[in-house]
């Protein structure tokens, strides 16, 4: 074995949001000698092929949507050319590159040593890093964090390799004319909405009757109806048997769905698989260190981010718990506090309950806490009270009925105190709205606390404090 070339207090494997937050807190605030290793671009999935470029693309789609709606307000807007997707794509790339540089400078500012390479555990204290130039480093660390994230799945369907994943979405140089997306989670739903509003004929293939099936049924039922109203093609109860290359640009998907149980075909120039993600652990060497994994390959970690090995910790998507960037960041900072922050932080950990989440669909979806069924299963039907409303936001007052998008809210309460245990919202502005209401739910707000807040008029949000 090669000699030890570096030693540190804390080795972070994975330069995504969670790993970097933990590394910077450990070194910059608590003075631990820290090394961070990343094999790809700094920032991980979120910055490079996730939240950040996704939201930029969602912004572009929202602008296209607004331009289409402007006529109802009296604007006479004539486009002099089609949407310049290529220019948009390269500007988006430049923005991400600037963020990569900011992340690296932040590591320098917090005195974290950064290695660009691929890390492999040799045992519970030693790691081999194959650097991007081919050379190797052997690092001995007192404590190790595994925050390697995940990667998109591709099915074993014949011809599946002709498609792309959410990673490949951000490499597209031209906007597809006709795109098929396979999946029913937030990635598929978000990207389907973006493709549609930017001008692609969009087909979304789902295995069941609805998508976003972990969300409250109100969300599922309302958003799928709205996507169909907008003109997206939803293929329910679908499966794909094979994909065939037609020519240099086009391919043919063979499939069955609710309307074509005996099979049909669709010619497309883009196929995007959004069928889930797997942990990035293939060559991490977990077996050499004795780190336990679950049946799906996720690293098993408790609420304190401890693995079964006393000095090895894990967080973020590689654990498969709640795969959201802010969750990984918050967990990373708490872990650094607990490991290096002194006695007052000995019990520091992230509270994984009541974490708000948003789907940047068209319109946006927000959710925190329990679904209605989860609340009934937990507390009993007799102890659950539901307040809900659906309406048309004032924004659509100037538009014909067929052009009006829905807004729907549900507040789930339990007990005599009517404590709010779930809040689900769909409609324009839901993402920004949920952050504030999320604080209230996290603090244990009751329905009467909502009622005691004077409404802001005219807004959609005021409906949440005037529910009857």
Give a structural overview.
This protein is of the alpha/beta class and 468 residues long. The protein has helices at 17-29, 44-49, 51-69, 85-109, 166-169, 186-198, 217-230, 286-289, 325-340, 372-379, 430-442, 447-452, and strands at 6-13, 34-38, 113-121, 126-131, 136-146, 150-152, 178-182, 201-205, 233-235, 239-245, 251-257, 260-268, 270-273, 277-279, 312-314, 357-359, 365-369, 384-391, 407-414, 419-426. A hairpin with a 5-residue loop joins strand 10 and strand 11. Helix 1 (17-29) runs parallel beside helix 4 and helix 1 (17-29) packs parallel to helix 9 (325-340).
CA-atom Rg in angstroms: 24 Å
Q: Could you tell me the strand content as a percent range?
A: 25-35%
Q: Please, how many helices?
A: 12
Mean pLDDT: 97
Give the spatial strand order of the biggest sheet.
Answer: 1-2-3-4-5
Task: Identify the notable features of this structure and list them briefly.
30% helix, alpha/beta, 468 residues, five-stranded mixed β-barrel, 20 strands, globular
Write the layout of secondary structure elements.
Blueprint: E1 6-13, H1 17-29, E2 34-38, H2 44-49, H3 51-69, H4 85-109, E3 113-121, E4 126-131, E5 136-146, E6 150-152, H5 166-169, E7 178-182, H6 186-198, E8 201-205, H7 217-230, E9 233-235, E10 239-245, E11 251-257, E12 260-268, E13 270-273, E14 277-279, H8 286-289, E15 312-314, H9 325-340, E16 357-359, E17 365-369, H10 372-379, E18 384-391, E19 407-414, E20 419-426, H11 430-442, H12 447-452
Parallel strand pairs: 1-2, 1-5, 2-3, 5-15, 7-8, 7-13, 8-9
Antiparallel strand pairs: 3-4, 4-5, 6-14, 10-11, 11-12, 16-17, 17-20, 18-19, 19-20
Helix pairs in contact: 1-4, 1-9, 3-6
